[in-house]
Amino acid sequence: MAPFGFYPVEGVPERQPPRPRNVLNPNLLHGRLKVSLTTLTPLVVGTGAYELREDDFVRGICREGGVPVVPGSTVKGVIRSYVELLSKSCVLQIEKGQPAPSCKTNFRAGSPDAAVCPSCQIFGVVGQKGALRSLVSVGTFRPHRTPVPEEVIRLPQFYRPRKIRREGEKVFRKVYRHGNPKYILNAVSTWKNRRPDRYAAVSDGVTFIGLIDFVNLEPEELGLLALGMGAVPSRKFQIKMGYGKPAFLGSVQMEILDIQPLSNLVWNGKEWTREHLWEWAEAYVRRDPWIGRRAEEVCRQQQFDEAFRQTPREHSYLGWDLVGGVYGWEP
Ligand SMILES: [Zn+2]
Description:
alpha+beta, six-stranded antiparallel sheet, three-stranded antiparallel sheet
């Protein structure tokens, strides 16, 4: 047991020719999602800089005019990682000497037989032989209400996490589990030889709102995007973002509040709504047994409420040794 789990990567990415980016295809979907992001545990989206708090320095979080925000690039990166998990997509991290099924090395801009995986099609890829622009752009997420409740928390130094694991030819994606950070944060001050640092954090229960624009998406791709946000009502789950994920920080729930037209909400001459989006997500899941199994697995395992209710046994909690302050294992 560890505060994270591993999902095997489908061996062969499902590749298609890259779609043109510069013209709007009337047979594809273009629009804007109004999305909320609510913190379920404290969230640390850091800047690397320090802030002064009560005569002491703490590690700072992203702000605009002093108000905490979540940059679009952070949100986009997180959604991409869950879209990769839920599709037959490539592994972007390339390690020396390893066979990597990556579009980074495979994709050749302008080549007649160029092809990219589902997540590179949607989010783009910067390859060694050319780049493909993203079909999705994510704006800054700003708090729904101010002032934003904040706190300062003490966290030990975490090692820079590896996002993938290899066992021979097999590759796994790493996904952090949910839990209650209270048990870790209460124990931190008792750990020897693990010098904690102070971090500013947005408290739980804070809602941020942001816009996600998309062009030239197939209906099932938009469904996959909504699934990757954990925001499809029938397949809801919670995602993790920011710093301190092994200590159960950064559990968030995303929700699609509204679909706004860029020009007109018409696809193939028909109007469409959120209900169509949920149907397209289902159509995406039902298309392939591997995707169906993966979607069920993710929805079962990435549930916040269930994990939050678990309590420590002896001195251990969801992969942590609460006395020694060590957790899981790192490959
Ligand atoms: Zn790819």
